[in-house]
Specification:
alpha/beta, 8-stranded parallel sheet, TIM Barrel
């Protein structure tokens, strides 16, 4: 792999630096001497731990081609994303296995397939109840099953790295213990669980709340309820869909204060219509509609079915809606997902020995807006505006 070199302002430290990389890793970060006025900003590439699809491509579809998956990855490079957990949601057993085989084959065969860092299986071991179940099909919701998890791993060639499960199932703690013992991240979400059930899941090894504030009832008791319990538990990190639709600014601000930026992760929960024109699309077995305002709903309803969010817009929204600084927002888009998703050689920012996944961008501080200019994956330029 050819060596690469770039220079700019490290957006996490504010320092002017020159970065050299070879063999897919950063080999040197040196102070840049001379005027820094014309430099663009540099940050670690963004990591999205929950992507169901993008640019018209559905990762949950059993017939999705490897070529289409490749096109969707390249579209995401333009948003600053360099690695994803491709996400497979609740569906028929064979359909989910076929989707995982597709994703594993794509990772193996595509030139940029290594951008698929892993697979996040969201369901089918979630709440069967209306509200917490969200857009997941009720007929395919089922109890946690370690044998089924092992079939996933076989189909996925070991790529399953995160599983979202509801703690309300009687066997949830044992399931969580089993998967975490194999290095898989256990997340809780789409749940209708008591505080005691949530605590048991965390004691068993669950460490993440999936898209906290979503996949829940429209009305909850004042207290106790499962949102407060997750917000209060410092053992749990949380992922957030920051598109201005899934969460309002007040909840987002309070949730970030409760979790702290250090335990908070930006995700898109993007589905196939993301990056596309408004219209009708397919998500797994469901028909969904993308509105002109960017809302994705089950066709004919107002029930949200994933998002059309881009990660670069999510970074902007963290600054605009939650009042975060640029370094804080970027931390939620890159370093925190690396830590929560157990992705090695990414957690220290732009430092020697870390992966040479970088994004270069223009930043308008007054407007709190980004424009992605270049994206590197393992030291290779994969996007240039």
């Amino acid at each position: 792999m050819n060596a690469m070199k770039c220079s700019g302002m490290d957006a996490l430290t504010g320092e002017a630096v020159e970065i050299t990389a070879a063999g897919g890793v950063i080999t040197a970060v040196e102070p840049l001497l001379g005027p820094a006025g014309a430099l663009r900003w540099l940050a670690p590439g963004f990591i999205d731990l929950q992507v169901n699809g993008y640019a018209g491509v559905d990762y949950c579809g059993s017939g999705t081609s490897v070529e289409a998956i490749g096109q969707s990855l390249e579209s995401q490079f333009a948003t600053g994303v360099t690695r994803i957990f491709a996400t497979v949601i609740t569906g028929p057993r064979e359909g989910m296995l076929a989707a995982m085989r597709n994703l594993a084959r794509a990772r193996r065969e595509l030139p940029y397939g290594h951008a698929i860092e892993g697979i996040h299986v969201e369901g089918p071991f979630i709440s069967p109840h209306d509200g917490p179940r969200g857009a997941h099909p009720r007929e395919h919701v089922r109890p946690p099953d370690v044998d089924e998890f092992r079939r996933w791993q076989e189909a996925a060639e070991g790529l399953v790295r995160m599983v979202t499960v509801s703690p309300e199932w009687p066997g949830a703690p044992e399931f969580i213990e089993a998967i975490t013992s194999e290095g898989v991240v256990a997340a809780i979400g789409h749940l209708d669980a008591t505080p005691e059930q949530i605590d048991a899941a965390v004691r068993a090894g669950a460490r993440v709340s999936t898209h906290l504030g979503n996949g829940s009832h429209a009305m909850l008791p004042r207290h106790p309820n499962y949102l407060w319990q997750q917000l209060a538990d410092d053992r749990l990190a949380a992922t957030f869909i920051v598109d201005g639709i899934h969460l309002d600014a007040a909840f987002l601000r309070v949730a970030l204060r409760a979790k702290g930026v250090e335990r908070s992760v930006l995700i898109t929960d993007a589905v196939a219509p993301a990056g596309c024109a408004p219209g009708l699309y397919r998500l797994g077995e469901a028909d969904v509609e993308l509105s002109a305002e960017g809302k994705v709903t089950l066709r004919g309803t107002d029930r949200l079915a994933g998002s059309a969010l881009r990660m670069d817009r999510g970074v902007e929204n963290l600054m605009r809606l939650a009042g975060l600084t640029l370094p804080e927002a970027l931390t939620m888009a890159a370093r925190n997902p690396a830590r929560v998703g157990r992705i090695e050689h990414w957690r220290r920012g732009l430092q020697p020995g870390e992966r040479a996944d970088l994004v270069e961008f223009d930043y308008d501080a007054a407007a709190k807006s980004l424009r992605i200019v270049r994206t590197w994956l393992g030291g290779e330029l994969v996007y240039e505006a």
